[in-house]
């Protein structure tokens, strides 16, 4: 049934309805790989043209070589391939695709000159008539991934009035094949993922070397017991989970580099290990800090500071852990890509960043109060170093997300992922050194019977329990 004529909206980038197995399409990157996934994109020509930015990125999965025309032999140009499923409908609507580079489109929008609808569309960098079942167009390469605006245009686009009829939608598939700078057409990594495979390999190698050097001495320290025994055990579990996450990510990317699919189970396992380690570390740091702060307010001069016996500190830690767990799982469910560190553009991600900032402020304030009234130089240095480790653990993620805004879209998640892993690893090393050194010291120190952190008073004052 035809609707009454209505004003035609100003043209804008077309909204694409992507199939369940598809990705955002475009790339102009000479530093990584060929775009090799067949992506099904649906554009509706019977409705008003809606605005949406199509972010440039390389598609990851394998494109069967038998189905597509290859780029030119010189390797200097990319190839845009379009296949139209219902070409008769497209011809009847005089359908076209207009592609603008983001910078050029923004300049056009900000221009003082008053361009008409047709004049704006005529300035597109690429125009493709949708009048054949299959079409190829050569695209000059851009030295880095960029954003493109894609316009679906038909004979109604610039008309002041149009009839909204139940005409058939124009369905088509679009793929951009881009030569690889290293002349390696089988490299499946996108611009946003290049380098992660090598990074996780070096990370796993570093964990292995460190384990060979320090595992035996650390195990002996843990077996001795002592006042820092529980903390060292929790830190060791967190470190093992981080190492397992790195190994799972490496196996996933190794498989991904060969088949373009990877091992989704390994990607999910890496995310799970990371979530558990984040939750454990949060509980450890928060319960330690709150236990010290609350215990210092209540204890007498002769009673040891009690960490795990304070209901208030335990309640605070559990509340924060549950909140962070919910936000982490929510964020992972919103983003199906297998990576633990996101650019936090969703509501869950923003709330998670806010939670980490609040936790850093809470711990910082609590530890500042302890440091301010502490008279012992040794213990003051202990608390100061512990504060540095806590602040680094919680604030590295929000800080790196903020810094990443200065870089291009495709670089952000890579910067966040590498940066957060390295910062949190450094934080754990800092805490390890702190607790191992003080564990050995407190065992023979007369101070341990008075104000030793992480000990619980018992009937036998010469023994420490956890």
Automatic annotation (TrEMBL):
Localization in the cell: Membrane
Membrane topology: Multi-pass membrane protein
Name of one Pfam family that matches: GP180_GOLD
Annotated GO biological process: G protein-coupled receptor signaling pathway; response to pheromone
Main location, first listed in the record: membrane
Name of the protein: Integral membrane protein GPR180 isoform X1
Keywords: Glycoprotein, Membrane, Transmembrane, Transmembrane helix
An annotated GO cellular component: membrane
Taxonomic superkingdom: Eukaryota
TM ranges: 199-219, 231-255, 275-295, 307-330, 350-370, 382-403, 415-435
Organism, as annotated: Thamnophis sirtalis
InterPro entries (alphabetical): GPR180-like_N (IPR053880), GPR180/TMEM145 (IPR047831), GPR180/TMEM145_TM (IPR019336)
Ranges in a coiled coil: none
Residue ranges of every copy of the GPR180-like N-terminal domain listed in the record: 74-159
Segments forming domain GPR180/TMEM145 transmembrane: 204-431
């Amino acid at each position: 049934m035809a609707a009454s004529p209505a004003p035609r909206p100003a043209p804008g980038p077309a909204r694409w309805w992507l199939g369940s197995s598809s990705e955002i399409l475009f790339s102009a990157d000479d530093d990584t790989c060929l775009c090799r996934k067949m992506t099904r994109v649906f554009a509706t020509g019977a409705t008003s043209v809606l605005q949406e930015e199509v972010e440039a990125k390389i598609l990851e999965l394998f494109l069967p070589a038998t189905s597509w025309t290859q780029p030119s032999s010189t390797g200097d140009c990319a190839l845009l391939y379009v296949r139209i499923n219902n070409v008769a409908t497209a011809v009847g609507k005089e359908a076209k695709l207009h592609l603008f580079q983001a910078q050029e489109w923004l300049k056009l929008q900000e221009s003082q000159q008053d361009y008409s609808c047709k004049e704006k569309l005529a300035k597109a960098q690429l125009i493709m008539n949708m009048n054949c079942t299959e079409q190829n167009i050569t695209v000059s390469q851009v030295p880095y991934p960029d954003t493109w605006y894609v316009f679906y245009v038909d004979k109604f686009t610039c008309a002041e009035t149009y009839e909204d009829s139940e005409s058939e939608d124009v369905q088509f598939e679009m793929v951009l094949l881009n030569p690889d700078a290293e002349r390696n057409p089988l490299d499946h990594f996108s611009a946003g993922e290049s380098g992660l495979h090598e990074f996780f390999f070096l990370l796993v190698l570093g964990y292995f070397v460190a384990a060979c050097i320090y595992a035996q001495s650390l195990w002996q320290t843990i077996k001795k017991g002592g006042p820092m025994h529980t903390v060292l055990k929790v830190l060791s579990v967190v470190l093992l989970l981080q190492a397992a996450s790195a190994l799972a990510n490496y196996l996933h990317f190794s498989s991904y580099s060969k088949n373009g699919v990877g091992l989704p189970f390994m990607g999910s396992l890496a995310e799970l290990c990371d979530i558990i380690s984040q939750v454990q570390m949060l509980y450890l740091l928060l319960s330690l800090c709150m236990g010290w702060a609350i215990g210092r307010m209540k204890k007498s001069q002769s009673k040891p500071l009690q960490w795990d016996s304070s209901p208030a500190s335990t309640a605070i830690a559990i509340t924060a852990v549950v909140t962070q767990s919910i936000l982490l799982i929510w964020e992972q469910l919103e983003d199906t890509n297998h990576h633990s560190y996101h650019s936090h553009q969703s509501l869950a991600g923003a709330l998670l960043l806010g939670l980490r900032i609040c936790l850093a402020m809470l711990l910082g304030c609590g530890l500042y109060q302890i440091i301010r009234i502490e008279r012992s130089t040794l213990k003051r240095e202990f608390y100061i170093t512990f504060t540095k480790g806590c602040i680094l653990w919680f604030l590295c993620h929000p800080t790196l997300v903020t810094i990443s805004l200065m870089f291009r879209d495709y670089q952000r998640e890579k910067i966040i992922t590498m940066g957060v892993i390295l910062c949190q690893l450094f934080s754990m090393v800092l805490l390890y050194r702190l607790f191992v050194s003080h564990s050995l010291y407190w065992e023979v120190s007369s101070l341990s019977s008075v104000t030793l952190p992480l000990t619980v008073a018992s009937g036998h004052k010469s023994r420490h329990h956890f």
